[in-house]
Amino acid sequence: xQRPALxxxxxxxxxxxxxxxxxxxxxxxxxxxxLLFTWLGIPFTGAPAGxxxxxxxxxxxxxDQSGQGNALQTGIVSNPSWMGxxxxxEYSKLYLRAAELLFFMDxxxxxxxxxxxxxxxxxxxLSHVRTTDQCTVILGCGNRGCADxxxxxxxxxRRLPIRxxxxxxFRVREAAPDPWLKDLDPHSSATWFETLVSVRLGQGEHVLExxxxxxxxxxxxxxxxxxxxxxxVVINPVFRDGKLVDWxxxxxxTMPSSFSKRPLVLVSxxxxxxxxxxxx
Length: 280
What we know:
The protein is mainly beta and 280 residues long. It folds into 2 domains: 3-117, no CATH class; 119-161 and 176-262, Immunoglobulin-like (Sandwich). The protein contains 3 helices and 19 strands. It has helices at 3-10, 119-129, 167-172; strands spanning 15-17, 22-39, 42-63, 69-78, 94-98, 101-106, 111-117, 135-141, 149-152, 158-159, 163-164, 193-194, 197-201, 204-211, 218-225, 230-240, 243-252, 264-268, 271-272. The strands form 5 sheets. Strands 5-6-7-18-19 form a 5-stranded antiparallel sheet. A 4-stranded antiparallel sheet has the order 1-2-3-4, with helices on one face. Strand 1 and strand 2 form a beta hairpin. The chain is globular and about 55 Å long. The two termini are 29 Å apart.
């Protein structure tokens, strides 16, 4: 089915991209509620009191280059209560995968809409950015602590979502979404899931600064950008006696082997981290 026909069926997507080839839909899931009362200390369910919208259904549709839908996955997740926690554990998290696109939500831990591209889709993107008039910097963690904030040329700091704490869920639940992890490196020796972040910069000199909310100090990197260049940056805080003493930042023009199976962040907590529609 072509994209226009699917949109007529499913409605208006909350996030979409022609370049990345997907639509993400959201719909409220209504549940009937009942009045509760007690008589002689015994609880009874009374008449219907109306409906609630405690859950949402997300549907991720992937399209091929012709605009034909080639993969679809859907699921339900609990909406956060007024206290910020999911209204039910059964649907407290959601993981969807459609072709080369990965979606996850964990409202209880403040994780809104997140979309990742598999290494295969990431590499296609990296081949395309080499034909543009900007340079591309790919950020990733090393094997120690990591930054979770970054800024470019003195701009306000932005969250750096290159380490997601999802591995605990994968490891302890039999329902862990194994197909979701296909072709990815789950970093099984730790409690996090490693990703990569792309930063697009104009030609010329730039300064990137890295920091972490739970660590003192910051590290900086000066880069000279050329059109179509792709640069990889490995971020490693250096500790001594449990204290941060320096930031080790490695720069290379070839992809580090540790990056090879990491997906690329497209959207983190509802915010785009790549070009939504890539243009030359």
